[in-house]
Design goal:
This protein has about 475 residues and is of the alpha+beta class. The chain contains 15 helices and twelve strands.
Length: about 475
């Protein structure tokens, strides 16, 4: 049974009277009137919301999740500040550019905005419940939409053993190995098969039920994977589990396609060496989460970065593996993942699936052919109006242009230095005028200026050669 006193997190809970005005507005009345019973003592508290127990008039036990007043404005201000800092970092620190800090921040911001919308959390819960309907032992709390809005949601209360209370499992007659395997199967199905997954399956968001059931709660953080990304992920995971370096390299090079050729060649050799170290290692000894972390480390060392939408995925794999190991020290993610991965691959190449993809491709081709006359018409009109243009963006051409610009600047300085030397020599032969140290002042100053320019030019050339050597 869930105990309120041991579920309070590290974030201090707000006094209920601070929440009452907002909750009254969202529920349309005082909580003591809307519900048959409402507990003002919080069941759990977090940075975005806190949870209270309640009972509906029909006797259903529920939890009421209430968003903290003013938290949206605080988060928006923080995200705005972080965006300014990320933009500054990209502009002033070119070494960070491959990691695309602003893109990562936008992905993080989208995740936070989803967490702020408590009604969206419930829609995610219902979608996951539908996807996992085949697993009778998975439970997702039901949403009571009559009292669910952006700032509050009401869901069934889960009566089970909290994920942190592992010492209670034996007394309840639950097999920890079976629970670990079932939890992994559920999350892996969300990721690999459905492309929509609970992105924070830590022990605080899991409850264990009678007959080895598992309940997931708190769906504020969810991940999305497109069909194309799922296909790439499937190939990557199979490559890691079955120790096939070429498959891993193909996916990573595709993910980091904007890296230059030298970096990709180095990446291929390092990935092959990394996979080769697991040659002959039993499947049960592979740590899938650890391997994914090592792969991201190799990418970072090559100044490359994974797509931003995969950050939650890596986090989920690591969290899930930790959850499984907590239940069963002998739990191995790779062992659990391999059958599902092979099943998904087989399903992908069934005749029905092939026919469906072929029909989709043919339909898109027909749509393109249908639009072709209009596109050609617009193209011809632009040509007649002289509005045709061609935009070419190439980092290599930009680099060549920068080198030419620097070379022109140095050549101009060299000509100025030569002119100063020749002019100063002529002035030195002409008598009269002011003197400095017994020499014609203008001639001496000209020689000094020529020496300074020559020193600066020599230093610039030396630094340029040194920078090119470091790049090589």
């Amino acid at each position: 049974m869930l105990n309120s006193r041991n579920c309070i997190g590290h974030v201090p809970a707000l006094p209920f009277e601070n929440l009452r005005p907002q909750l009254r507005e969202d529920l349309g009345g005082e909580p003591e009137e809307v519900f048959a019973w409402f507990d003002p003592e919080p069941l759990a508290a977090a940075s975005i919301a806190q949870v209270h127990r309640a009972r509906l008039h029909d006797g259903t036990e529920v939890v009421v999740k209430i968003r903290r007043p003013g938290i949206r404005e605080v988060i928006e201000a923080d995200l705005h500040l972080l965006d300014r800092l990320a933009a500054l970092a990209e502009a002033e620190m070119p070494a960070l550019a491959p990691y695309r800090p602003r893109l990562l921040l936008r992905e993080f911001g989208r995740s936070l905005h989803r967490e702020l919308d408590l009604a969206s959390e419930c829609r995610s819960a219902e979608r996951l419940a539908k996807n996992l309907a085949a697993f009778a032992w998975v439970s997702i709390p039901r949403t009571h939409w009559a009292w669910t809005h952006e700032r509050v949601n009401v869901q069934d209360y889960v009566q089970g053993i909290p994920g942190q209370a592992l010492d209670q499992l034996a007394a309840a007659g639950l097999d920890r190995r079976l629970l670990a395997r079932r939890g992994a199967q559920a999350v892996l199905k969300m990721i690999v098969e459905d492309g929509f997954f609970h992105a924070d399956p830590h022990p605080g968001n899991v409850f264990y039920l009678p007959q080895h059931g598992i309940a997931f709660i708190d769906f504020g953080m969810v991940g999305h994977l497109s069909m194309r990304r799922r296909q790439q992920l499937l190939k990557l995971l199979l490559g890691l589990v079955q120790r096939e370096p070429s498959s891993v390299v193909d996916v990573l090079v595709d993910w980091t396609r904007d890296g230059h050729a030298v970096a990709q060649e180095r990446l291929e050799s390092e990935i092959e060496a990394f996979i080769d170290q697991y040659h002959g290692t039993p499947l049960a000894e592979l740590s899938l989460g650890g391997m994914l972390v090592d792969v991201t480390t190799i990418l970072r060392e090559n100044h490359l970065a994974l797509p931003a939408d995969l950050a939650l995925l890596i986090k989920t794999f690591i969290t899930l593996e930790g959850l499984g190991r907590g239940l069963d020290p002998g739990f191995h993610m790779a062992v659990e993942a391999l059958p599902l991965l092979q099943q998904v691959v087989r399903a992908r190449y069934r005749p029905q699936a092939l026919a469906k993809r072929a029909w989709g491709s043919w339909r898109r081709m027909l749509e393109v052919a249908e639009q072709l006359p209009q596109d050609l018409g617009r193209l011809l009109r632009r040509a007649r109006q002289g509005r045709m243009g061609l935009d070419i963006e190439s980092r290599s051409l930009k680099r060549v242009g920068d080198q030419l610009d620097r070379a022109a600047n140095r050549l101009s300085l060299a000509l100025i230095v030569a002119a100063l030397i020749i002019g100063s020599s002529i002035v030195m032969t002409v008598g009269g005028g002011p003197t400095l140290l017994g020499l014609p002042a203008f001639g001496l100053l000209g020689f000094v200026g020529a020496c300074v320019g020559a020193i600066w030019l020599g230093r610039a050339i030396w630094l340029s050669h040194r920078h090119d050597d470091e790049e090589l």
